[in-house]
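Before surveying the methods themselves, we first show a specimen of the format, giving the amino acid sequence and backbone structure tokens:

:::
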Amino acid sequence: MKPPAAKTDTRKVQAIRSLLAQGVHSHQQGALAQAEALYRQVLLHDPQNADALHLLGLIAHQEGNQTEAIRLIERAIACKPGIAVFHLNLGAILKARGELEAAITHYQEAIRLQPDLVEAYNNLGNVLHAQGRFQEAVTCYHQAIRLRPDYAEAYANLGACLRQQGKQAEAIMYCRQALQIRPDHAEAYSTLGNIFWDQGDLEAARVHFQKAVQVKPDNAEGYFSLGNLLQSQGDFAGAIASYRQALHHNPGYAEAYNNLGTALQKVGDLSSARTSYEQALRLQPDLAEAHKNLGDVHQESGHFLRAIAHYRKALRYKPGYAEACTNLATALQMQGKFSAALLYYRKALQIDPACLEAIAGEASIWEKRGDFARAYRTVHPWIASGTTNAALLTTAALLCRHYNGLSDQIIPLLEQVAQQETLSLWQRRNLLFALGKLYDEQKLFDKAFTCYQQANACKPCRFDPDEHMAFIKALIETYDTAFMTRMPRASLCSERLVFIVGMPRSGTSLVEQILASHPAIFGAGELPTLPQIVQALPAILGPASPYPRCLHSLSLEVLNTLAHHYLKRLPISSRDASRVTDKMPLNFLHLGLIALLFPQARIIHCLRDPLDTCLSCYFQDFAGEHPYAYNLTHLGLYYRSYQKLMQHWKEVIDLPLLEVHYEELVTHPEEISRQMVAFCGLPWDERCLRFYENKRLVKTASYDQVRRPLYTTSLGRHRPYTRYLEPLRAALAQEI
């Protein structure tokens, strides 16, 4: 008879084997919780059971807990060092975590322990492929195929690697061999799709990408590749649908969120694009492309500081990113930081000498600085060669006024490129505005208006007239006579401030340029500080009511704090000036608040013929968001609300206010200029009549006009377009 202990050991071993077998069966059926419980029962009987530890590690990996998976499989290896499959699976987990060198070590150990383990050769090839060590990867795939001639996975991976080496014919051959062995091999179809795309056969590429998702409906990579192809063809709706399918099957796919954002941005859905980029960055904070793209959305929305922050992050994570350098330069240029912008344009060109957007950006700086010859030299070789680059063409269009015959070269190119299906809405809009301006200058008014109409249709319209009128009504009801009488005024008195307000395109830049030519006046341009204060007021005063209803709790202490905040943010270079102008036109919305913050401020209100003003807005590609300006009816309603509000301010605020009519200023410049200077409380200076000699930087859309002596060609701006203006006239005639 055997000793009782031996019988007990045998029963224990059998029990462990039975538990393991049950666990493996449950594992294979996808019942992970049940399998885990069975494996843990094994460990209760045998804490050093390597198989149970290894299998628990696989469950942890399947559940996304890679750290625990690695710990368990490393314990399994420590308990039973000579098992190749343990190293094989640990290598796969390490690769998934991006620890490629550690993965290579374990794959190589698996091969040492079991030289005929084909999966180890295939997986080692995949890691080497990911590292760009293509020839070593090819050797591994060939070894896997030698050991298992019907190994479809190795054929497909070999095809993908050969594609990276530029060996397309061989790559096609191996992918087709993979499909002969396994006709439902999605990755082989995807690789063939990419090869045909490389070769320019877009229809064959599309067919193969579609086949990849047909044979494997949960193929996130296949949907991603199909989305990329469709986006490159200008089928943005199809691309969006494909990316969303990819994300349905892989919600953690950061690159798919990024590319979805790009497609959404191209169709003008900036809000959804921003959300997609932000989700990509939540999943992968170092994804440089998503930072660059999020910067683009902020730049297109006029939020240049936010854009700059994301471009800098993109360059931190990807220092050789020419597109991020270029777009950072553009954002800096929009802020008037031309020297810094030039540095980044040149850095982009050092990275990629053929970066046409950087060349265009550099030329646009010379144009804005008035160095037209240098701007022309920069772009002309590309124009002469018939470039189709949108950025170069829109920059070159700015120079047509200064070079006879240039329009004849530019217009056909603009007409051709503006019809390309692959353009984003933003690119198409820029081209159409440029083309409209050239047609207008050539007095081809019908063509010009059509272009401007199409350009404005490219702007996503988010203007709600009812919502805007409710805001105007709230301003009038809040800032009534009783409120303005009752409320305290900030005690930080300063006579320095002159606010130049009015509708955009009503002459505010010209008025500021004339005043800023006086040695005692500093022209600060369109300062964002006051709108930022307005935006912050509900949070400062308590979130119970939005602005302006929240103002009833406004105290002297808060007014003093806000006034100090505004003054502190005036440009440092303005500190010695007797007067400082802030010419943010839409500050006309905030004259009541200005009266409370700066009781000694002066207001210059710029007016221009309503039809001329509104049409000039409609023809202007504003930086940032002016949602009322993309539709003639909306423009008319907005103008009427502006008139109503300005009439109210005249009745309730006690600030000195001078009205300057654009038509009078350009026909009687000295008389009106003298009135403006006297209104500012300063002696006359003849330099105000030579404002066009002032070298100060003008950042607004009127930068070119204020460099020239006064002209009257803008009077009656609307007359050639009378036949198109009935919606505007009707809106301007409405009672509100």
The first helix runs from residue 4 to 28.
